[in-house]
Amino acid sequence: MRLGFAGTPEFAVPALDALRASRHTVAAVFTQPDRPAGRGQALQAGAVKRRALELGLAVHQPQSFKSAEVETLLRELRLDALVVVAYGQILPPRILELPVLGCFNIHASLLPRWRGAAPIQRALLAGDSTTGVTIMRMQAALDTGPMLASRTVEIAPRDTAGSLHDRLAELGAALICEALDAVAVGDAAGRPQPEQGVTYAGKISKAEALIDWTEPAGAIDRRVRAFNPSPIAETRLNGAQLRIWEAELLGSEGMTPPPGTVLATSTAGIDVACGRGALRLTRLQLAGRKPLAAAEFLHAQPLAGARFTPS
Length: 311
Hints:
The strands form four sheets. The protein has a seven-stranded mixed β-sheet with strand order 5-2-1-6-7-9-10. α1 packs parallel to α6 (161-184) and α5 runs antiparallel to α7 (217-226). The chain has helices spanning 13-21, 47-54, 68-77, 93-96, 119-125, 161-184, 217-226, 294-300; strands at 2-7, 25-30, 35-37, 42-44, 59-60, 81-85, 103-107, 115-116, 130-137, 147-154, 200-201, 233-237, 240-250, 262-266, 269-273, 278-286, 292-293. The model has no long low-confidence stretch (mean pLDDT 94). It is of the alpha/beta class. The radius of gyration is 22 Å and the shape is elongated.
């Protein structure tokens, strides 16, 4: 088949690689315009653009898929199918109708659970034991299209958004190739999504990363893992930002000190009282500094008796 590919971040790169290596032809790659990034706010290309250029593929960066120019380009490309992976824009209905066989999306959840922008983080925050990847035929409504294939992944106790991201990206890459092979031979009508079990994975806001120490230790642990590698869970130490990269649950449920109080410090970590139970912080970062293991952090920042606060 003659394919178009629309994606932007690192999550989409394994799928692009897999399709490029498949028996199908990637005729064009669509990705978001370069964005300012870093301290200097210089324009930087997304991961898909960088990889597509390495592969010698034609790259297009429209401001919007709603423009007449994009519609004309897609008609000229005469695509059999368009694969969309974390592109970053909603495609208009008329665009979805242009490829002969349709548009297909790799979504990082087991639909209909966690439709929307941040399924990996929301699954971790909710304490889900499993997640997965779904390949769906796209339609106008958000993540509601018929499902062509899905695979389940167990969420390990220490999984972060980063570790799940990498596993799901590779799984999605393999699964889209299987699904497109079925589409190519006319065996991909898809099955409707169940009406039960629909949840929505809204975008992650930086405000959500601020730790509320009155929450149970388990909930805070999930927050730390869900926001690693971005935006990183954080608290305040004497009014200054302190980011928590890694933590471990402690077994005690009988904490009596005020939540946020440092209970003990050691080379193993910094034990902090929560609303229920306690959490051991093992990797931390002060504003403007690099992340440090707890033992190294404590050399410069003795924390015995300290208390973390939300502001």
